[in-house]
What we know:
By secondary structure, the protein is α+β, with helices and mostly antiparallel strands. The protein contains 7 helices and 7 strands; from the N terminus they run αααααββββαββαβ. It starts with 5 loop residues before the first helix and ends with a strand.
Amino acid sequence: MSKQTYAERIANYMAKHPGSTTREARGHRIKESLDYDKKLENARGIMQREGISLTQASKKVHVDRSRLSGYLGKQGILQRDKGKYFLTSDNRIREIQFIEQGVLKTIPVSGYENAKKISSYMNDVKRYFKTGNESILSRWKGLYITDSNGNKHYFETRKKQLTDIKRSGTLTFENLYRITR
Length: 181
């Protein structure tokens, strides 16, 4: 049996593990999970909102450019074209807290825009609890969100149901959602 050369070992690893990087083939430890990383997600948000480059965003949040590109690449929302990186549409599934029919639920939604809409609603609920001003919720009356399974969920705007949820102590406004896929 002949001893494999370094190049052969790399080629064999790459053949057995499609989609892996040369870095992984060389045996470097790579974080396998797609765990949510708040700092890197903040950089993604900055790139999206401000339209700045990957390098500029990584400098703003004080992370290595390769760490940010690796994370966004594994999340499936970063592409490279002609040497430049750009964000693709973010259709990752997020599980997010939602109030419907007097019940606090966690529903799966697809994409950044749907999560942003629910977050805006939950911020309005929080403002309503602080001020007691019912007109804050009026823009949500009769509106719904469609989850990633195609089910409609109507925004809760009834005062009694919202107050009951607040009194139950189950509603928190920190960590409203997490990315699952």
